[in-house]
Design a protein that fits this description.
Elements (H helix, E strand, L loop, with lengths): L3 E14 L2 E10 L2 H5 L4 E4 L4 H5 L4 E4 L1 H8 L8 E4 L2 E9 L14 E5 H8 L15 E5 L3 H14 L3 E2 L3 E2 H4 L3 E4 L2 E3 L1
Parallel strand pairs: 2-7, 4-6
Antiparallel strand pairs: 1-2, 1-5, 1-8, 3-6, 4-7, 5-6, 8-12, 9-10, 11-12
Length: 184
């Protein structure tokens, strides 16, 4: 698989569908996230690069979220409210189970990262110290040149500016946590 990457902003959010609500983990990413994390869909389809470009109100949900909001009913095509905004469920993720630290990986909602920035938190910078706790770049592919290439791509997405308008080169801190994941 060629090297690929995805910005990732995440946190916790309350989601609502009908008369049910649930507090879950959200992650704003690009479509490459599924391949990077080796995550399949069991229903529906992933959002597209076009959805990222247009900050579309679409999402994919994990099995725990599906169960809590819809039980055994079909989730694809249904609406979820987040911060008084409506999002369409495009897909349901295959079960992953618990992570090595005991976190339920299926208790998640995945959205285009631009949608999280612009519509959930009204932020246009990649990182401004506000509601979005940070920016991670998830990559699939190894070697310093690949990591720095992807870091440069993220800088280009933000117009080379973030963190209060400072240039990427002056404000970014690259932390390689493990092969395949970078944090700024």
């Amino acid at each position: 698989m060629p090297a690929t990457g995805s910005p990732s902003v995440d946190g916790t959010v309350v989601i609502i569908s009908g008369n049910r609500n649930w507090t879950t983990h959200y992650r704003g990413v690009t479509p490459d996230f599924l391949a990077i994390k080796r995550w399949e869909l069991v229903e529906g389809a992933p959002f597209t690069s076009g959805d990222v470009v247009h900050s579309a109100n679409v999402c994919m949900i994990g099995q725990t979220v599906r169960q809590e909001l819809y039980g055994a009913e079909k989730a694809v095509g249904r609406d979820i409210r987040i911060n008084k905004k409506i999002f369409r469920v495009m897909g349901v993720l295959a079960p992953k189970g618990q992570s090595s630290n005991g976190q339920d990986q299926d208790d998640t909602i995945i959205l285009p990262y631009t949608t999280v920035q612009k519509k959930l938190f009204d932020k246009t910078l990649l990182f401004d110290g506000g509601s979005i706790g940070g920016l991670f770049l998830l990559v699939k592919g190894y070697g310093a040149s690949v990591l720095h290439q992807k870091a440069g791509a993220v800088a280009a997405i933000g117009g080379g500016r973030w963190n209060g308008g400072r240039s990427f080169e002056k404000s970014a801190h690259l932390l390689v946590e493990s092969p395949g994941k970078m944090a700024f």
